[in-house]
Amino acid sequence: MSSIKAICCIGAGYVGGPTCSVIALKCPEINVTVVDLSKPRIDAWNSDKLPIFEPGLDDVVKQCRGKNLFFSTDIVSAVRDADLIFICVNTPTKTFGVGKGRAPDLKYIESAARHIAEVAGGEKIVVEKSTVPVRAAESITRIFEANGSRGKFQVLSNPEFLAEGTAMKDLMEPDRVLIGGEQSREGWKAIEALSSVYEHWIPRENIIKTNTWSSELSKLAANAFLAQRISSINSMSAICEATGADVSEVASAIGRDSRIGSCFLQASVGFGGSCFQKDVLNLVYLCEALNLPEVAAYWYQVIAMNEYQRRRFANRIVNCLFNTVTDKKIALFGFAFKKNTGDTRESASIYICKYLMDEGARITVYDPKVEKEQILLELTHPSISEDPERVDRLITIENDPYKAVEAAHALVICTEWDEFKGYDYKRIYDSMLKPAFAFDGRMILDHCNLHEIGFQVETIGKVVSSGYMLPFTPPLAPPKEEK
Description:
Blueprint: E1 6-10, H1 16-26, E2 31-35, H2 39-45, H3 57-64, E3 69-72, H4 75-81, E4 84-87, H5 107-119, E5 122-128, H6 136-146, E6 151-157, H7 167-172, E7 177-181, H8 185-198, E8 207-211, H9 212-243, H10 247-255, H11 276-289, H12 293-320, E9 329-333, H13 348-358, E10 362-366, H14 372-379, H15 388-394, E11 395-397, H16 401-404, E12 410-413, H17 425-431, E13 437-440, H18 447-453, E14 456-459
Parallel strand pairs: 1-2, 1-4, 2-3, 4-5, 5-6, 7-8, 9-10, 9-12, 10-11, 12-13, 13-14
């Protein structure tokens, strides 16, 4: 295949939508069609209110939509007409069966592959962009071959390395683009064809070409290393709170070491999002399947530390509020897993709400971007609350942050939205019950100013206001001694 003239993307989510919007912007001669089974989602992509929030996305979609960027539910036509097909479907962690809680559920990947095999003809390049376990491309190839498809396929791995909130910048100016494929003449032709698309705006030297397995594993490894850094600095935050050290100063000191660097050394209430936990658990399951139990145990500690940090923060809230939060109003600011996104998947806020609801707290939630329905959907999930009526009774969603804190015992910051820094905290303090507590789970507020206003200030990794016992967090079970 000499050149790519038409691209189809199966999956109109957080990866497919932004990725194909940028490709359409940078490659005006290529027709890009994003398809999905969900008509409401496609209708949203064709409306003025896109189904996802990402800074800069609206402008790009409006500039290209209807010209060379299209959103449709007609999957068959889009697949038939495409030279290159991206698979950008969800790969959630399995909730039942073999590998429950760790292995990725590949049913959507398999479904997409079978659909392509059924309707496609001619030469096609099929690109897995969803996060998948190692050797998933081999499974897709087997599906094509076993179904006696009329098409001739080359399957590539082209993992995304996007951070929600900065996805458009990550797409416009990526550190690298990774393309993995079969190490054969046809495989290299397919790799070069996909590379030629990216070379419209990305320097060729920033495009890394590997075999398929290296590409698939690199995605899991990258997210595992990033999650590991967050868990590492969060483990230091616990020591800092116990000793009087300041985790920000510790992070600054070690980040000056060029061998370590300063990125991802911001202590917090814990990481969230669709990728980190899922990918680390995928890596753990892969190691277990490969009979590498020590490696699996090593990476699982990244998840265990994240869970410990969330639980520790919630315990601190209960401890500071005189060891009970039953029927006490707590205002929680931020429900998205990070700023500049409306995504709530695996958000720390979900678990903080769960732990506080377990203690009987009445929680008022405010987030500038997350819809009420999404918040309630997360909190009524069976893994968070088995009793939906409890959520109705204990959770209130507010659209006004100042109203959210009225008569509250405590304010809890769970997302680092920039607007939280500019609020009138004297006004907030005056409207709260006394003593008024501020728990900064993202270390974004001016703690000295809050203390001067009158707040009892608690944050991650340092002691701001004294006079409380360190909260007790049950330790992890000690390792068994070898006999």
